[in-house]
Amino acid sequence: MWSMSRKDPARRRAVVMSLIALAALFALDALTPRGLAHGAAYVIVMLEIGRTRDLRLIRLFAWLSCLAVLAGYFVSRPGEVSDAMALVNRLMSLFAVVVVSMLISRLAELTLPPPAR
After folding, report:
1. Global pTM?
2. Is 111 exposed, middle or buried (0-12, 13-18, 19+ CB in 10 A)?
């Protein structure tokens, strides 16, 4: 189900902006030490892709964001906080991404037009 046409410029812009934000956040994540709680910023990606109301895109970017949060733990250098605290920060970020993606998906389901008969 598509709420926006695949050729819709607003949809394309949302996808491109989400990809750019995802890449920029992952690069920032890789450059900063473990323990900084900026993994929750991946919620920005979910909010941007949520504008499309495309359930497949929302789920795809939720998975990509979760993978980026997890990969960010491994590519970032050790910081001043313990690994346990860094893992707690990552788990909180994953929780935020999953909850926001579930809310956006539900909103998209509620606002999609009924199927044509």
Report:
1. 0.85
2. exposed
Length of the chain equals 117
Residues 78, 33 contacting (CB under 8 angstroms): yes
What is the tens place of the pLDDT at every residue in 62-107?
A: 999 999 999 988 998 888 888 888 888 899 999 999 999 999 999 9
Whole-angstrom CA distances from 75 to 22, 40, 103 are: 15, 17, 29
Give tens-digit pLDDT for 35-50.
777 778 899 999 999 9
Q: What is the DSSP string of the chain?
A: --SS-TT-HHHHHHHHHHHHHHHHHHHHHHHSPTT---GGGGHHHHHHHHTT--HHHHHHHHHHHHHHHHHHHHHSPP-SS-HHHHHHHHHHHHHHHHHHHHHHHHHHHHHSPPPP-
- pLDDT at position 15, please? 93
